[in-house]
């Protein structure tokens, strides 16, 4: 066994044993994104363990998903209008790389725990920003 495959297996096992944090945001309306996300989680074979409102603009999902479905979840989040941070993209890339190199059914059936935090932002335009800074004369 070469050291590269041993390192990959060790990295994969370490990644799959702990919860992975995903930070994200959206400019879409919360009321339209949440039903789409919930349906996407179940369509990908994920289990929603917890759903929490952290603030009026932030929500958190704790889900578990099989490693074989990570790419489907990644695509579903993006298609729902969720913008991922750089760190979240790197995390999904790492998980997809693990998925690519694990070939047995048992390996692909391993469960990954994810904590997905989504902040809903308002789309601020230059005009709206200037309107709030400059009172009418």
Describe it for me?
- This protein has 137 residues and is an alpha+beta fold.
- It has one domain (3-133).
- Helices cover 49% and strands 28% of the residues.
- It contains six helices and five strands, in the order αβαββαβααβα.
- It has helices spanning 3-17, 30-43, 70-79, 86-101, 105-108, 126-133, and strands at residues 19-26, 47-55, 58-66, 83-84, 111-120.
- A five-stranded mixed beta sheet has the order 2-3-5-1-4.
- It is elongated.
- Mean pLDDT is 81; it is low at 1-8.
SSE topology sketch:
Blueprint: H1 3-17, E1 19-26, H2 30-43, E2 47-55, E3 58-66, H3 70-79, E4 83-84, H4 86-101, H5 105-108, E5 111-120, H6 126-133
Structural Rg: 18 Å
Average of the residue pLDDT scores: 81
How many β-strand stretches?
A: 5
- First-last Cα distance: 76 Å
Helix content: 40-55%
Principal-axis shape equals: elongated
Number of domains: 1
Number of helices: 6
The main β sheet shows up as: 5 strands, mixed
Strand residues, percent: 25-35%
Which structural class should the secondary elements be placed in? alpha+beta
Which consecutive residue ranges, at least 5 long each, have pLDDT under 50?
A: 1-8
